[in-house]
């Protein structure tokens, strides 16, 4: 579990192919300011990964085939900059939103425009995820918790203040670059519920009252 607040930046030292489509990733994590234990979870560009070895400031991770397919981790090259966030601990401040580190899809930066002192960034999104994007809802982009400004046919936008750009890997990105997308966990489960036929129980004559909530298992 993470918050989507980037702790620091790291650099990919090596990406080694393994059997079955997996890859071993070696990352310089000195920016974290501490040495994680073997088995600890760290989000790399929003992807929850387990530390398998540590030597000095270099931590090793194993990105399995599913991770390589679903995210950008398998396509990163030596020297690529990564957003780093250690897992949330009990008592930590929750200033972002609940992030699982489970990437839903890969999007691309499609446009960047100025808006006063801020910038509006536009990203492509897969059509099958559109129902989970909502204006003012939460989205995780490369592990960064952001608020959706607007949703269009096949893109969405977010507003970035200078601090967010300067303290994350956003400052290294440009139009056409790929990013990892994780939708809000609540939107994910609501979408699943509706796709399983929950909406078929709702008619125009139904009222959202205690009887309706009890009938559908909410109370």
Description:
With 219 residues, the chain is mainly beta. Helices cover 13% and strands 38% of the residues.
Concise description?
With 219 residues, the protein is mainly β. The chain has helices spanning 65-70, 162-167, 185-195, 210-215, and strands at 8-17, 23-28, 41-44, 47-55, 58-63, 81-86, 105-115, 118-124, 138-141, 144-151, 155-160, 178-183.
How would the blueprint of this fold be written?
Elements: E1 8-17, E2 23-28, E3 41-44, E4 47-55, E5 58-63, H1 65-70, E6 81-86, E7 105-115, E8 118-124, E9 138-141, E10 144-151, E11 155-160, H2 162-167, E12 178-183, H3 185-195, H4 210-215
Antiparallel strand pairs: 1-2, 1-6, 2-5, 3-4, 3-6, 4-5, 7-8, 7-12, 8-11, 9-10, 9-12, 10-11
Low-confidence stretches: none
- N- and C-termini, Cα separation: 27 Å
**Beta-strand share of residues:** 35-45%
Class by SSE composition: mainly beta
Helix-residue proportion: 10-25%
Outline = globular
Topology as a string of helices (H) and strands (E)? EEEEEHEEEEEEHEHH
Largest sheet: 6 strands, antiparallel, barrel
Tags for this entry?
single chain, about 220 residues, mainly beta, 6-stranded antiparallel β-barrel, 4 helices, globular
């Amino acid at each position: 579990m993470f918050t989507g607040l980037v702790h620091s930046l790291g650099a990919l030292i090596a990406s080694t192919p393994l059997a079955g489509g997996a890859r071993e990733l070696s990352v310089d994590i000195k920016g974290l300011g501490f040495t994680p234990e073997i088995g600890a979870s760290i989000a790399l560009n929003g992807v929850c990964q387990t530390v398998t070895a540590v030597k000095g400031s270099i931590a090793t991770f194993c990105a399995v085939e599913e991770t390589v397919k679903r995210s950008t981790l398998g396509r990163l090259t030596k020297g690529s900059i990564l957003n780093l966030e250690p897992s949330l601990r009990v008592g930590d401040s929750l200033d972002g939103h609940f992030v699982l580190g489970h990437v839903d899809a890969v999007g691309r930066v499609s446009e960047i425009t100025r808006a006063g002192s801020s910038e509006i960034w536009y990203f492509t999104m897969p059509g099958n995820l559109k129902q989970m994007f909502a204006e003012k809802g939460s989205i995780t982009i490369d592990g960064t918790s952001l608020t959706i400004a607007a949703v269009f046919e096949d893109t969405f936008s977010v507003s970035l203040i200078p601090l967010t750009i300067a303290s994350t890997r956003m400052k290294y990105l440009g139009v056409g670059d790929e990013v990892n997308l994780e939708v809000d966990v609540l939107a994910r489960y609501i979408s699943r519920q509706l796709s399983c036929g929950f909406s078929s129980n709702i008619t125009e004559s139904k009222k959202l009252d205690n009887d309706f909530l009890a009938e559908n298992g909410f109370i």
